[in-house]
Amino acid sequence: MNDFKIACSYFWKYLKQYWVKMTVMIVLTLLATLFQVLAPIYMGNAVTELTKFVAQSGSSSAAGFMANFYVALKWMAIYFLLNVIAQFIAWMIMSKFNADATNNMRRNLFAKLQRMKIRYFDTHQDGKILSLFTSDIDNIFNALNNAIFELVSQGALFIGTIIVMMSINVKLALITMASTPFVLIIALVIMSKARRSLDAQQDEIANLNGYINEQINGEQVILSNGLQQESIAGFKKYNQRVKETMFQGQFYSGLLFPLMQGLSLLNLAIVIVGGIWLIVADAVNTAAGLGLIVMFVQYSQTYFQPITQLTSIYSSIQLALTGARRLAKVEAQAQEDPVPDGQVLTGLKEEVALNQVHFSYDKGKEILHGIDLSVPKGQMLALVGPTGSGKTTTMNLFNRFYDVDSGSVTFDGVDVRKLTLESLRAKVGIVLQDSLLFTGTIADNIKYGRPDASDEAMVNAAKQAQIHDFIVSLPDGYETQVSDEQSIFSTGQKQLVSIARTLLSDPDFLILDEATSNVDTVTEEKIQKAMDAVLKGRTSFVIAHRLKTIINADEIAVLRDGHVIERGSHADLLKLKGFYHDLYTNQMVLD
Amino acid sequence: MQILKPHFKRYWGSIVGAVVSIIIVAVSSLMQPRVLQYILDNLLKNDRQAMFHDGIVLVALAVVGVLAGITNVYFAARVAQGVTSDLREETYRKIQTFSLSNIEKFSASTLVVRLINDMNQVLNVVMMTFMQVLRVPIMVIGAFIMGIITIPRFWWLQVLMFLAVAVTLGLTFPQLGKMFSRFQKKLDKSNMIAKEAMQGIRVVKSFNQQENEETRFNEVSDEMNDLNIKIGYVFSCLLPAFFLICNLGITAVVYLVGLNVENNPGELAAITSYIGYLMQMLYTLAFGGMTLAMYARGTVALRRIKAVLDTKPDLVFAKDAPEVELSGDVEFKNVSFAYPGSDNETLQDISFTAKQGELIGIVGSTGSGKSTLAQLMTRLYDPTAGSVKVGGVDLRKVNEKSLRQAVALVLQKALLFSGTIADNLRQGKRDATTKDFKWAAEISQAAEFVERYDDQYEHLVEERSANFSGGQKQRLSIARGVVGKPKVLILDDSTSALDARSEKKVKEALEQKLTDTTIFVIAEKIFSVMDADKILVLDEGKLVAVGSHAELLETSDIYREIYATQRTKEALDEGEVLENE
């Protein structure tokens, strides 16, 4: 129930600004339903008048019946027309505000994601976050389009029919509705069965997908070991399971429609039999009883229509509610604090420091146990240590991707939490290990941090980053379209582009996570030069893997299990004959 | 559709079941207004006997309708599942006959999409065919005929309304189709932006680019919204238009009956059932139109699958080649190679020989063609010119099984498959025993960590082998390469993630235990192959020098140069160490 409330308040949040349109649309839908019910009554009247006309044919009153027929026919036509017009306007209004509301959900979701803390992205899979866009918003849009209209019109039809039936004959009305609970139970049982089979089906498809993905991406191994037959044998197992579960899913979800149709017909038979029984048992006047049955034959069908329709949109409403709940959950996530009233960081004058920093991702599992480090202006600090020692974690603290549990990170003695987030990040540059290219031109990518930079400045940055020559060798030069997936750039070259990006934005303090990937000697040379260029004259903090980088550092800090265990220059640390010495003589296999 | 045809044969029983049951469903729906008409007639006539009889017929119709409906769903799902899973298997089998370049041409990810998403589209189409599409013509024609039987003189009205609905649908659906495909493209674009903004969230944040990203996304989102509204408007017109046609038809029927009621009083009783047939015809037609739109998506999917099935494997092993035991002699004779679709020759006129048991080093920078050379030796590709021989047999004429037994390739990117360690090792030798595993794992230095697991070689390899470090993966991958005791073993930079000590141990073990095997070691750095019997130096696809380390230092300028640069760096570091000590 609570979940339901969350979903509803999410919908309300986005729909409330359209309340006028929504009211108009609902009123129009109710009117359309009313006209839809009225038209057949006038049709019945028209037929009655015609019957009378035929019976009285030749007598003087005949002309009057004919005139009545035309009046009834006129009203029937008018109600038909009004029904269509009301529907048309209701749908036009609805299409617009549904689309707009969905658009707002989509835009807000993206904006929210841009403002959320890094922790969310580190703890949630990209694919799952993306499915908010690809499936949840889509489900909501579809449901809004179908469900709102159907809920209103079919709900009105359902209640209206019950009221009319009860006002005509309570007993026959009860007979008409008697089977409804059973029908609903059958429908619910089938739907829940269908849902379970569909879930199982999704799981099996995911398994098959995983298998195929792994096999085809590993085709080189399959081919060079001649494993094609084995691969097919494995495939058949997964394929068979998909076949079985999908059969169940399709069978159960396909059952609902024919079943409801058949039940509607059976109910009709019950109504007729019940009507005849009433005539006999209650000794109702035969003529009146017959008229009653004729009417209830119609009403029984009108009564069943909403049941069939509503059960068929039930699953789409379910999906929309689930989607709204997920989206509401994301909207409730903590946001980064931009510190709007904070101090503006204009430049680094003395030093960047970590003071007694304790940090944990999960409470109770501390990763950094009181770290003290400082980088004086213009100097380079290299951080080395084995996997899991806390290097990346430390890096995450400078520009507030994460905040410390206790202790502080300071720029010229000012705690980063007291600086405006924008000014902090504008002064802190970061070159990550896995460099990412955005879809767009190479120029877009280099100018990413400073879209207003001149082409001259861009070329200059590319030259310093040793990537200019390669870019101009491409047919479209800087205007070449790139994306992260396509392979114009090798991993090493991507890193060069991201160094150029950072050079152009000219940060005061630089964080560099050196790539560990294997590159050839030539590229390695280029990366080295590019790094020299970007590090020159800058205060920097480098997670170092290459020996040369480490040796060039002004100070080296050795991190192990969340403690800084050794600090000093390369020479100092070697003399210590400690952990660093071990690492070094072991040929610096750090990752 | 023709790619589905052969698969239908296997399910002819279910197909007959689905077709027969859908016909029964359609016929029972068509009979329903008629029976109701009889009941009302008899009610008015107060003929209880007949009414009772008709009531039973109505119940029977309902029961038959439900049963036939369920039977139809059952058989339709059977056929749809059977046919698509067979087609999926056929497609997968086809992919397994592909060469590496076939697969690269499609790209692995599109192949996966075709096998899963496209196949699901096909499934929906088949399911629809046997549930609805067959029903549509029966119902439309049946209702049309029943209508004419009920009130014959209105035949022209029926034709008119049929045409009105058909024309309305015919005019709007193609437009809608175009809008939907435009929407799909926008959706893909917005997903791409969202995906990049997720994956690059650190970059976005550190460059303060949140607002620009939002603008970029909102632009596409607004375009999507415009299309959504347009599509909504089209539907807002289409559906009322359809109801308008229906309502006009009903009004016309009542009016026309009234106009001539003196001459045809019998038509009065028939109005209800006549209108019933009219509606059955029009609703089924509209429904048929909707399914047609789904069909369009399905045919696109079928075409994409057909493209896979129609692809000719561009590398086929000679079927009649006898299975022989190949020796470890390798010979390249004037081999040139260009990747399909590329004009640049990755390898140019390469000739060399390697004798069984030799250790051959191959060095050169990235892009010099080292890995390509390895791929030619395992016949993942054929050379564009010249010939590659293993054990004296040209690879174009070799028996596939013989080659796979003789040559093993270990890649730099150690690919393990989910399953157990044993499963992965068995890929190198199908009937390998635990003894073989141990032997191979000891050579590759994998034994030291594998044998620490309680379940040892039955230890699970998770998806993306996430439970192993880079170094462990490489050691297992090397074990897979050596377990079959190949005559030729190619290590393509496959010790890059190992520390120097382990790398040395692996090398020593290989030399001691695989004395009979020709070993190729591909490396960036000369130091890794200095002790080889022969070193091949590649530069931009050309074999620029061959010889032992000592010989090359004498004869090859390029080799000397590379060695010098790599050495100075090392020496510099080395020197500093000494200096500091």
UniProtKB/TrEMBL annotation, chain A:
The keyword tRNA-binding does not apply. The keyword DNA-binding does not apply. It holds the Pfam family ABC_membrane. It is found in: Cell membrane. It is a multi-pass membrane protein. It comes from Ligilactobacillus apodemi DSM 16634 = JCM 16172. This is Multidrug protein lipid ABC transporter family ATP-binding and permease. It comes from the Bacteria. The chain crosses the membrane at residues 19-41, 77-97, 147-166, 172-191, 251-270, 276-297. Residues 352-586 form the ABC transporter domain. GO terms for cellular component: plasma membrane.
UniProtKB/TrEMBL annotation, chain B:
It is found in: Cell membrane. GO terms for molecular function: ABC-type transporter activity; ATP binding; ATP hydrolysis activity. Residues 330-565 form the ABC transporter domain. One of its GO terms (cellular component) is plasma membrane. It is a multi-pass membrane protein. PANTHER family: ABC TRANSPORTER ATP-BINDING PROTEIN_PERMEASE, ATP-BINDING CASSETTE SUB-FAMILY B. This is Multidrug ABC transporter permease ATP-binding protein.
